Amino acid sequence: MMGIIDVNIKGVIIGTHIAVNGLQQQGGGKIYNTAGMGENGFTRPTMVSYGTTKRAVGYFSNGVAKEIEGSGVTIGWLNPGMVITPMVINDAKEMGEERWKKEGRFMFSIFGSSPEATGEELVKRMVADTKNGTFIKLLSTPKMLLGFALHMIRKKDRLQPYGI
């Protein structure tokens, strides 16, 4: 658990402060911290520590955005949604078919996105962002509702190409 806290909370705090100082010296810039599952208070068994750290990222980033307002540096945070990373693939294979069904296969099969597609969309939104304190969330409630509706029609499984 300490590794999660060290990376997801301490790392974000230290990295943000270093970046703010450096960007102020050069006259401005943008910082984006990555929140994720848990940033909205959603909890899931086995993911409590992780989700807690991601909730902290949002709180911290929002607070720093207010503190540095007008400095020439802007800060935002983002939630990339459900990204089918090598870690997700390995975890799914290790937990076995039955547990994977319980732990999120259905949701990943509808909403999972490749790291490449996720990165392209995040970069597009970050470049277009002109405000301080922006929260970029790729998997919004309307997008989820549309995803469920389309899944009922298409029955497309985004996980098949990954063998999980």
From TrEMBL:
GO biological process, one term: chlorophyll catabolic process
CDD domains: SDR_c (cd05233)
InterPro entries from the UniProt entry: Chl_b_Red, NAD(P)-bd_dom_sf, SDR_fam
Database matches in Pfam families: adh_short
Domain of life: Bacteria
SUPFAM superfamilies found in the cross-reference section: NAD(P)-binding Rossmann-fold domains
GO molecular function, one term: chlorophyll(ide) b reductase activity
Protein name: Short-chain dehydrogenase
Organism: Oceanicoccus sagamiensis
